[in-house]
Design a protein that fits this description.
The structure is a homotetramer of 201-residue chains. The first copy, chain A, has 201 residues and is mainly α. Helix content of chain A is 74%, strand content 0%. Chain A is built from nine helices and no strands. Chain D binds a DNA duplex (21 and 21 nucleotides) through helix 3.
Chain lengths: 201, 201, 201, 201
DNA sequence: TATGAATGAGCTTTCATTCAT
DNA sequence: AATGAATGAAAGCTCATTCAT
């Protein structure tokens, strides 16, 4: 009998080890050899677990989506009051750990590839769906806030929700490019303060 | 030295014709042949104007920066009142023409390359400098607005300025990925309304 | 030594199961995995019975020769009269069953490999020896026929025998390439009629 | 201006130089590097003239068909009497020059590939068409011969023609495998004598 | 100056073979 | 004995770059 291996687990392990390389070199520049080296296996072994190079990216892409859902889910389910939940969401969305940074970079890579029709999976569909869900949740919070008197009645909750959730990527990307350019924690804190105090001023 | 002027002009022409290809295929996937075809010249001719493939991207990068400066400059210099100027800036920053879209995509490509240390020019320095200038201008406007009573005194103008100018890229990127996802004109309008009416509510 | 007998039997079984794959894909294109699948064993198991991929082909080659000898032997030993024996030989040589077709294709593969000096076993020696034997037998029949007045005295029995036995492969190969091109049974029958009625006309 | 090259001519040149390698190693075993070496060019250059490795084989295949048509055309158009034309045809079909031998081997390679559905072009269609034409011509000659009293009235000209033209490949293949096995010139001569003297005996 | 033919480094992918279990 | 996970050599193919014309 050969070595007994949980193929799915091993696949996931390799995908995980590939993250750092994919982030550092980019999908196109990263070679299978790079990925094999990072995973500590031979080049051929990669092909036991992934049919093509693109499939590795798809697997990593899955990890990213799972991570996104997890981190947002955590942020959303803790609080009761709409302003607290919104603050937590913004906080979480702009919270960049070293770990997450790699995922963010790969995520942008995927983004570009799909923008060009070079994507292989259903990236756009998943992103769109995630964003739609998130937009509805955020719009709901804003509506709740409006009802509580936090925001004026004529605020377009849906449009504002869209702006909010799409803006996060911009802030994060700028921060990643040059971390000395600004203090993201401070900016986040101040923005939350600004955003939540809107109606009270 | 008319020769040199001529050569620079031709360089710029080729760079301009390369934009569409670079946006559509991405820097790595676009071949010199693609670029030569787009420019209507032979492959060898490209090398009379650019030493390497990377140099083409640098030239295009220059075009992008010039375009960014031009469009922002236009937005900033027209109005007198801080709220009008801010509205114009947001408007302009979120105004995506077909032409600009190509530049945006290449800009993201460059962004990623530099995020990875694969960039060849002074992209980060230029972006940082542009953003610094812009941040100062926007912070100034917010301060002016605070003085006019538009925003509360304890608003951190600098932090808010950072959020504002970095948020644009996020909104634009999301919009480009799926234009059916939301109506960017409407979102922009509503966000401006929200942002500027902060203190009045 | 029952072990060895067992092993030989298993070898032969695997070789037999490999025939269909080798015929369908060709020796070079057929992978060990293909052969293992066809034999219903694991890839590693193949190497318990064959040192290399080439050895599998050699084993199959042996099967082919055994089959050739068997089918010709059957044809040759039944009749008494030379013309009957010749007719039976031609008949048998041009009789293509589905089963035999696979062997024929592999046989051609082997042929080509040996034509190029890429053969590993004693294919050429065996073929030459088989053909020599057959040629002698056929020449003998023709001589017998000449004596019986079937063919003219000045017919070169040996040369004609060579033509006859080498012609079979050509007819069969053409037929296999496009079975709709001609009715091999009819052609065989007519050729036998022509060949045997030579002197009577 | 770059070196001016007649692309079609160069293509043909490379295809010609590839013949020897393809015959010696076989299509699958011959590497692009082998072919490039034989042509005295770099590996990349091959791809200026052929999109894929298969395309090289197709080009060579074209050469083979042209050669077949040429040699048969020559044989067929010289004589007037049916028996002379048939004799010339058989002669030509069994006449193996060193040059032709390479083509024959490649032809068999193609044959096998197409037998397996691995062929890329219209090999089967071309072969079938060539053989059909040839069969008609030969059948015509035999009919003419019958009318002249060379062969008995009840000979099936069509079936005999099929046997004749398909048998040649068998004779040639056997000869190529082991040239010491028989004297093909002698066999050819004797077979012609046998075939043409049928009715006279 | 303009060109594209020529090139080989470097990529992804396949697969015979080995070997730990 | 039986297995399939692991491997790297080797293949086809691409493309930035050079250079003769």
């Amino acid at each position: 009998m050969p070595k007994i291996v949980d193929k799915d687990k091993r696949r996931s392990e390799i995908a995980h080890k590939a993250i750092e390389v994919l982030a550092r070199k980019g999908f196109q520049s990263a070679t299978i050899q790079d990925i094999a080296d990072a995973a500590g296996v031979g080049k051929g072994t990669i092909y036991h677990y992934f049919k093509t190079k693109g499939e590795i990216l798809m697997a990593v892409s899955g990890e990213i989506f799972r991570e996104m859902e997890r981190s947002l889910g955590a942020a959303l389910l803790r609080m009761d009051e709409p302003e607290e939940r919104l603050a937590a969401l913004i906080q979480e969305s702009l919270n960049i750990t070293e770990e997450l940074e790699h995922l963010y970079i790969i995520y942008t890579d995927l983004w570009l590839a799909n923008l060009r029709g070079q994507g292989q999976g259903d990236f756009i569909a998943v992103i769109t769906s995630l964003n739609d869900d998130l937009r509805k949740i955020v719009a709901r919070m804003i509506e709740d806030g409006k009802r509580k008197g936090l925001w004026a009645e004529d605020i377009d909750a849906d449009a504002l929700a869209v702006y909010l959730i799409t803006s996060f990527d911009g802030v994060v990307f700028h921060y990643m490019l040059d971390k000395k350019a600004f203090d993201i924690k401070h900016v986040t804190r101040e923005f939350i303060r600004f955003f939540l105090r809107h109606a009270k001023a």
